[in-house]
Amino acid sequence: EDVTQEENDLKQLVPMLDRCEEQAGRRPDEVLTDAGYWSEENAKVEDERTELFVATTKDWKQRKAQRERGAPRGRIPKDATLKERMERKLLTQRGKEAYKQRGVTIEPVFGQMAMRNLVRFWLRGIAKVKGEWSLWCTSHNILRLWRAGVVLKPAC
């Protein structure tokens, strides 16, 4: 959870992965992101530890046409760009299954927060907005724990 003043998410992928490694002790096995994170530079982050699934376009018509054509057969051409490689990867059965998880993992959270009236930040200044966002995230997580019936024991 973090707030930035960047106009898009292009420069956020590497810091997020670094923060995951810092907090969890390792990088995630899979990273599922929307097209706002697509760049050749971000595509190079993929390694043997972390597999990326990054949408390459925001245009839903283009994505629909790609899905309807199906996954191309055969080997990926050696001269294929990183973008072409990612597009082919997302069209594979593995890519479709992995990327489908993004829709059921993060998108509902944004919808739930919007239903609780988080449509804008009420405070001004990056430090205050970060605090407000942390409160929203904390309250969301507490509500999820409560709905799941988790009983927290006192620290004493």
Overall description:
With 156 residues, this protein is mainly alpha-helical. The chain folds into two domains: 13-105, no CATH class; 108-147. Helix content is 51%, strand content 5%. It has seven helices and two strands, in the order αβαβααααα. The chain has helices at residues 13-24, 40-43, 60-69, 82-91, 93-105, 107-115, 126-147; strands at residues 30-33, 51-54. Strands 1-2 form a two-stranded parallel sheet. Helix 2 links the parallel strand 1 and strand 2 (51-54). The mean pLDDT is 86.
Roughly how many Å is the radius of gyration?
A: 19 Å
In terms of structural class, how would the helical and strand content be classed? mainly alpha
Shape: elongated
| β-strand amount | 5-15%
Count of discrete domains: 2
Regions with little confidence, pLDDT below 50 for 5+ residues: none
User: What's the count of strands?
Assistant: 2
Give a short overview.
With 156 residues, the chain is mainly alpha-helical. The chain has helices at 13-24, 40-43, 60-69, 82-91, 93-105, 107-115, 126-147, and strands spanning 30-33, 51-54.
